[in-house]
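Record copied across here:
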Amino acid sequence: MRYKPGMITGGAGIEHDCGKTRGIGWFLEGLLCLVPFAKVPVAIQLKGLTNEETGLSVDYLRTVTLPLLKHFGLSEGLELRVVKRGARPGGGGEVVFRAPVVKALKPINLVHVGQVRRVRGVAFAAKVSPQVPNRLVDAAKGVLLKVLPDVYVYTDHLRGDKAGNSSGFGVSLVAETTNGSLFGAEASAQPGQAPEEVGLSAAKLLLHEVGNGGTVDSANQGLVLTLAALCPEDVSRVRLGKLTPQTIRLLRLLRDVFGVVFKIRADAETKTLLLSCMGIGYRNMAKSIA
């Protein structure tokens, strides 16, 4: 990866081919930390793998990650639209990502979890039998309906150009609590895997994420903590479950790069961690005045 320091310009009409090694979600994770501080709102077209097993899918980012950004003041103009699906190995997927810019982020106070009130999701299938999405849904709901009555998973079956260059299928699930917290889990088909195995795997992963506790799921811990460190000079608080190894390494990087040290307090009753920090007061000096 090459990085050239300087002003983030932003703008519309940007296109990028993400290749077939890493998914589009891998690139979007990096963009989410940068685009709020661009000069003008960003509209970018990304091509490549929309769903793959080594990174977050575009469905996960759209339904779980993007709503988190609204807590930081990024709401109007934030969009991730799937134009074409693209599975391994051929890819061929395409998404359009739009994001607004801000002068400064807003401090967060995400400490109340609430109870899970519903589960939503999407089961996709490209260049395979139309019955595959239904089999994914039945397998996932077979697990989730045992613990929650409000479960609905949409099906997205694609053919022709919109199905990309390779066949594939998978499911992305999101659990929403009464306080608006979101927990996500997903699974994409491996060679030789049946739809029932994929749906069952995603459902079990979602139950694990909910059981982990906190207000942010494990995949989004790093993004939330990074943006909290960049917030105005005020206290941001977030309740997390068990910290992932990646999050622990990130906390050390935030300390070394920004000088931000998070105060961590364990809650024995909920078995969660309450993290708080004072933001560095980063401001977007590139944002147009108009």
